[in-house]
Design a protein that fits this description.
- The structure is a single chain.
- This protein is an all-alpha fold.
- It has 3 domains: 57 residues, no CATH class; 73 residues, Serine Threonine Protein Phosphatase 5, Tetratricopeptide repeat (Alpha Horseshoe); 50 residues, no CATH class.
- The protein has 8 helices and no strands.
- Helix 3 packs antiparallel against helix 5.
- The N and C termini lie far apart (47 Å).
């Protein structure tokens, strides 16, 4: 299955050839990336500097695992298991069963572990931890080992949220800076 995985970096796009095509980036048009025309238009707009934004790219496996996470949180473990196995077995691994993931907590842990492996070095792990309330649990021991003098997240949970950019704050006066960064 061809997965459309693309890291759009502004400098790369602006130095890219004038004619960009989604197929140049490995998409196969196999149902994962059905709307290649829209993707090509977005790539071309970025290349032409008409769009001064970074385009987030979501892989198909990301959507499947997010659906599995949502199904699990809605107590639909059968659907969550099916979705988790769709990604897990694609990697050539043995499928999970209802007996190996008997409750919502173990299912959640399996989904997060799968996301950790699937999206290694893609910058998604921290947001997974924030969404599941696990930043302090997972990151504090790592911080303690690598920077013993650093303040752990558990000391001030407000630091889990990042500060808002001054550009964003200036653009919208109704926003206030996240604590404790103000």
């Amino acid at each position: 299955m061809g997965l459309f995985f693309l890291l759009l970096i502004r400098t790369f796009l602006f130095s890219a050839p004038p004619s960009l095509n989604v197929h140049d980036f490995g998409a196969k048009g196999d149902g994962v990336t059905d709307d290649t025309q829209a993707i090509n238009q977005a790539l071309q707009a970025a290349h032409d500097q008409q769009a001064n934004v970074y385009f987030p790219i979501y892989r198909f496996a990301d959507m499947i695992l997010l659906r599995a996470e949502a199904a699990n949180s809605l107590s639909d473990r059968a659907t969550a298991l099916t979705l988790l196995n769709q990604v897990h077995t694609r990697a050539g691994l043995t499928a999970y069963t209802a007996t190996t993931l008997p409750d919502s907590t173990t299912m959640s842990n399996a989904i997060l572990t799968e996301r950790q492996y699937e999206f290694f070095a893609e910058g998604r792990r921290y947001f997974d931890l924030v969404r599941n309330g696990l930043v302090s649990t997972v990151m504090d021991p790592i911080i303690k080992v690598h920077k013993p003098d650093a303040q752990p997240f558990s000391a001030d949970p407000r630091t889990i949220l990042w500060p808002l950019s001054i550009t964003v704050l200036n653009a919208n006066p109704k926003l206030t800076q996240n604590q404790p960064y103000n």
